[in-house]
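Quick illustration, no need to memorize.
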Amino acid sequence: MATDIADPVVPDCKGDVRSGARSDADYPLRVLYCGGKDLAKRHCALLPISVRACENSPKQEAGVGEGQGTAGEEEEKKKQKRGGRGQIKQKKKTVPQKVTIAKIPRAKKKYVTRVCGLATFEIDLKEAQRFFAQKFSCGASVTGEDEIIIQGDFTDDIIDVIQEKWPEVDDDSIEDLGEVKK
């Protein structure tokens, strides 16, 4: 019996299904890259708008990522379309401009001085803390939102020092509370 052995036909890469090559494409492929990134333009469209290097990147194809819209649709969703209350701006509470100075006992005959209210005069608390520490040669720290603690009893001297350093703080707006428990 004579059998015809045919040479196995090896299709080229255009017809090979396993290689993922398209039969309708011209090879070699020309890929357009995005401005400052090493991404193809079609991949750049998948990045968030803030990260994209090119402004005119192509819109995302509908079949690529289901459930994801184009960049224009995302911006449109963020805007409020119908009536409603929207966001209500909260009013700032007006805190009276008053600096309070208190002497707080620690152990035995030791005290710390607490200065509150300098932030209402728009004074930088960190700068004031450094100034007090240098002026009185002691430790000082910012504790809380509007409070400076100075190690030692400086209630008599601190009123004059505050008025010298910050002239916008007048004598009427400084209150000495005396000795107060923490």
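Strands lie at 99-105, 111-116, 140-142, 147-151, 174-179.
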